[in-house]
Amino acid sequence: MTRASSPPGPGSLTATQRRLGRDWRLATLFLAPTAVLVGVLVLVPIARSIVTSTTERHGPDSVFVGLGNYLALAGDEQFHTGVVNSFVFTAYAEVFKVVLGLAAALLLHHRRRGRALLTGLLLVPWVVPTVVTAFSWRSLLDPIFGSVNTLLTASGIGPLLASAHLVDSWPAGWLSDASLAMPSVILVNVWKGVPFFTVCFLAGLKAIPAEEYEAATIDGASSWQRFVHVTLPGLRHVITVTVTLSSIWTFNNFDLIWLLTQGGPGDVTAPYVLVAYSKAILQLQYGAGAAVTLVMLPIIGGLVFVLVRLLRQDTGTRPTRYTRTARWAGTARKALPWVVTAAVAGLLLWASPQIFWKAAVVLGVILLIAAGVGRVASAFQARGGRRASSLVSGLGSGVALTGLLAFVLGPMYWIAVTAFKSEGQVVMREHDLWPTPWTLDQFGALFTNQPFGRWYLNTVLVSAASTVVALFCAVLAGYALARLRFRGAQGFTVTVLITYVMPGALLFIPLYQLLIGVRLTDSLWSLVVTYPTFTLPFATWLLAGYFSSIPVELEEAALVDGCTRLQAFRRVVLPLAKPGLLAVMLFTLTNAWNEFLFAFVFITKDEYKTLPVGMQSMITGDVVPQGQLAAASLLVSIPVVVMYAFGQRFLTEGLTAGAVKG
Known about the structure:
By secondary structure, this protein is an all-alpha fold. The chain has helices spanning 15-20, 24-52, 68-73, 77-109, 115-122, 124-127, 130-140, 147-155, 157-163, 181-206, 210-218, 223-251, 255-260, 272-282, 286-295, 297-312, 324-351, 353-382, 386-419, 423-428, 441-449, 452-483, 489-501, 504-517, 524-530, 532-548, 552-560, 565-576, 578-594, 597-602, 611-617, 626-659, and strands at residues 55-58, 61-64.
């Protein structure tokens, strides 16, 4: 990493500085808060989880059973189903997120007008809380009252799907039918995840030099050839990092699946995280639950290893010697993606043949339409009809963007209009797409029937407190990792990255035991204390990348003028890092605002619930107060959407400088 000043000669360093590094004192001071929090809240709980996995609860006592819990998983059908479900859910979701995210990024990148507005609209699914996502899609996919079945029936597409045996019957029970539940859950995850891929790919497309496209055009390359030989190689690093990060998040997803189906029908959609929750929290078998999460650790560890290697590789260097070993390594590297793709496709075909063919049909239709538009545009261009080619390309991109926006904003539109309907209109399904008349009754009922104001205040307090803690610690640790010279800097950076991608599924069991031991469950402090486990590592990682992007000469000039290191940090670095600080504040605040798993496990009393858990508790059995939930969803989403609308530029800059910069 870039350093603030050139190191003095060896003779001017003390023995301790030569052994521990020139800036070891300041680095110790700056890294101490982060090291303590990460150690106490992440590393110690992981170690405790390992110990817990070797015990079995008998009444109030725990008995040592060695590897008994792990051996029991070999014959546990629920665990086997959960593992397969996690792989199926992750693989299909990532394929569609890559395809749709790349398509959206290309459409926006080539657009001259309205790109910022369209990018902001596409970000909406990503920033709204997961509980809002789940509620909106549960309502839309309802087999009787849902708008999806209504629209598909009116258009004739629904009966056509039934006749083609893509659905077993009509109207379809999207979340209650065993053959449709998993595809429906994947669809919702794709809807929520595509914006993240779009923003990352947009940042990557901006970094590809325009000269490469110009050279390819002069050489006579078609649009498809430029995409294959210029765009994809230029995005290779961003795609790999983004897919790896998203795969870790998706593989450990709990809240979306729980809120949509609770793992049902049966265990068709239950991932391994839900199996761990069921064993540890519902059955109070902490050892069995810990074993479920830890047995998946090698898979998570493999993904983390790939991610660390990708982020540490020097993409600007090339080997100077071309040996036979290097040639074979290069060939293997090129063949590896195809081998992995074939292996994953074979595994998915074996694990879920019905979903495989449905996904193949949908992907095939998307690719055929895109190829058809590109072929027509290329044909016009080859015949000299540039105006006709531009017209066809513009028309095709316009239709694609319209369809994408309808897919992205449809659920949010449904929430907005439902919040202003009367209870009679909601129940009778009259004028489904427009309130008649507009009314604020649902908002009044929400605050009258539920402690919604208390939930809102709890969420604000917890989010603000955890953001302040994460921002303070991350500023100090990020600067130390980016600028200071000390032994162990690389190891600390890798540790921060590893703790960032560690799943909440691995931590919630030991943290729950820890909170019970110190009597912090059912209190807001339980959330303020534990939220840094997922906000602090990410904030540190992103700020380290941002501090490294600030020209070191500015800090050196301040040091030459007589400033101390702390004065240069306060007067020069921090003012220049305001965009990065705002990006980190935006990420940490919204992550804390939307968090569900810890709040769901640690809080049971109404007066301490946060908004996601409180809204989930409004649903009792089959009774779903749709109007009140829509009003709550609107009030929960507006602050986050407004923050991202004003901070969109900082979000993109932060991703470019820290998270996905190659």
